[in-house]
UniProtKB/TrEMBL annotation:
<dbReference type="InterPro" id="IPR004682">
    <property type="entry name" value="TRAP_DctP"/>
</dbReference>
<dbReference type="InterPro" id="IPR038404">
    <property type="entry name" value="TRAP_DctP_sf"/>
</dbReference>
<dbReference type="InterPro" id="IPR018389">
    <property type="entry name" value="DctP_fam"/>
</dbReference>
<keyword id="KW-0732">Signal</keyword>
<feature type="signal peptide">
    <location>
        <begin position="1"/>
        <end position="23"/>
    </location>
</feature>
<dbReference type="Pfam" id="PF03480">
    <property type="entry name" value="DctP"/>
</dbReference>
<protein>
    <submittedName>
        <fullName>C4-dicarboxylate ABC transporter</fullName>
    </submittedName>
</protein>
Length: 324
C-alpha cells in the first residue's frame, strides 16, 4: 500500500475545493518553480490555450508558477495519489522511480536543444515513459521542455574545479545532480529553488547552479556577482501528470494532451534559446560579470559520474541518438 503524506492529502483536498469543475469536464493544474517571465512559462501558456481550443473546452489547464502548489517532489506525490495535477520536472527527480530518467541530467550529455530533443522523442525514451507509468503511476505528457544549460552563479571567480573547494552550492537533491556538483569540486547543498535567494543573502549557501532564465527570474543577480558559463548540465524537463487521472480521460483527450504538450514544449524551448542573448545583456547591465571559460577541466572532472551512477553504457547510446 502506498503511503501518502499529510501535505499531499491537504494539498489535494485544497485543489479539489479551489478547482471545482465548471464548464470543463476535466481540470489539470500545472505547477512550476519558474516565474511568469521565464520563456518556458510562455510555453505553458501556449499549452493551456491550445488544449482548450483543441478539446473545445473539455479540459481546462490552470497554471501555478513560483511553486504555488508546493515543491516538485510534493506535486509528484500528489500525482501518484491520482490528483489532477502536473509538474514541470527534470529527469533526476524521476530517477527514484525509473533509473534511466536520471541520465538526462548527467553532465555534458549533449549540447543545445536539438540533440536533447532527439533523445526525448526517440523510441528508446518512449520505452522509459511506459516503464515509469508502471513503476510509479506517473504519465509523461512530453519531455521536450528545454530550459537552457546550467551555469555557476557565485561571488568568487571560478575557472577550474579547484576554485570550488569548500563552496556550498545549491543543487536539486537527485543523485545525478549531487554527484555532478561534487565532481565539479563544490559541496552540493540540496534545497528548494524558492529558498535560494534568501539562503544566499543569509550565507547559508555560497553559490547556486542554474540556467540563465531561472536565475534572472529569481533575481540571482542581486545576490551573486559572478556567472561562469560551464554549461555542465543541459537542462531538459518534462510535463508529468497522474497516470490514473490520464487513463480516466477519453482516448481522444489523451492524444490531444500528449500532442499539444510536444508542440508547446517546442514553443518553450525555442523561446528559451532565442532569449538567452538578451538575458546575458540584462545580467551584465545589472553588474554581473559573465565569464566564458575553457570547460575541459569540468568535463574531465565529471566524466566519472556516468560510471558512478551506472550510466556509462546508456551514455553511448544516447549520444549516438543525439548525433543522428
Amino acid at each position: 500500500m502506498k503511503l501518502i503524506s499529510i501535505t499531499t492529502l491537504l494539498t489535494t483536498a485544497a485543489l479539489a475545493i479551489a478547482s471545482p469543475a465548471l464548464s470543463a469536464d476535466y481540470t489539470l493544474s500545472i505547477n512550476t518553480a519558474l516565474t511568469t517571465d521565464d520563456p518556458l512559462y510562455k510555453g505553458l501558456e501556449s499549452f493551456r490555450d491550445s488544449v482548450s481550443e483543441r478539446t473545445n473546452g473539455a479540459i481546462e489547464v490552470k497554471l501555478f508558477p513560483n511553486s504555488q502548489l508546493g515543491p516538485d517532489e510534493d506535486v509528484l506525490e500528489q500525482a501518484r495519489a491520482g490528483a489532477p495535477v502536473a509538474v514541470v520536472v527534470d529527469g533526476g527527480r524521476l530517477a527514484v522511480f525509473q533509473k534511466e530518467f536520471g541520465v538526462l541530467g548527467a553532465p555534458y550529455l549533449a549540447s543545445g536543444y536539438d540533440g536533447m530533443r532527439k533523445i526525448v522523442t526517440s523510441p528508446l525514451f518512449e520505452e522509459w515513459v511506459t516503464s515509469l507509468k508502471s513503476a510509479s503511476g506517473h504519465q509523461v505528457l512530453s519531455f521536450n521542455w528545454w530550459q537552457g544549460e546550467r551555469q555557476l552563479w557565485t561571488n568568487t571567480k571560478v575557472t577550474k574545479p579547484a576554485d570550488l573547494a569548500g563552496n556550498r552550492m545549491r543543487t536539486p537533491g537527485a543523485p545525478v545532480w549531487v554527484e555532478t556538483i561534487k565532481a565539479m569540486g563544490a559541496t552540493p547543498t540540496p534545497m528548494p529553488f524558492a529558498e535560494v535567494y534568501s539562503a544566499l543573502q543569509q550565507n547559508v549557501i555560497d553559490s547556486v547552479e542554474a540556467q540563465l532564465p531561472a536565475g534572472q527570474g529569481a533575481k540571482l543577480f542581486e545576490v551573486t556577482k559572478e556567472l561562469t558559463k560551464t554549461g555542465h548540465i543541459n537542462l531538459i524537463t518534462g510535463l508529468v501528470t497522474s497516470a490514473a487521472w490520464f487513463d480516466g480521460l477519453p482516448a481522444e483527450l489523451q492524444t490531444a494532451l500528449r500532442e499539444e504538450a510536444l508542440k508547446a514544449g517546442d514553443v518553450a524551448s525555442y523561446g528559451t534559446r532565442d532569449a538567452l542573448a538578451k538575458i546575458e545583456e540584462d545580467l551584465k547591465a545589472a553588474g554581473v560579470n559573465i565569464a566564458e571559460i575553457d570547460v575541459t577541466p569540468f568535463q574531465e572532472a565529471t566524466a566519472g559520474v556516468y560510471e558512478t551512477l551506472g550510466y556509462a553504457d546508456l551514455r553511448e547510446k544516447l549520444q549516438k541518438i543525439a548525433a543522428e
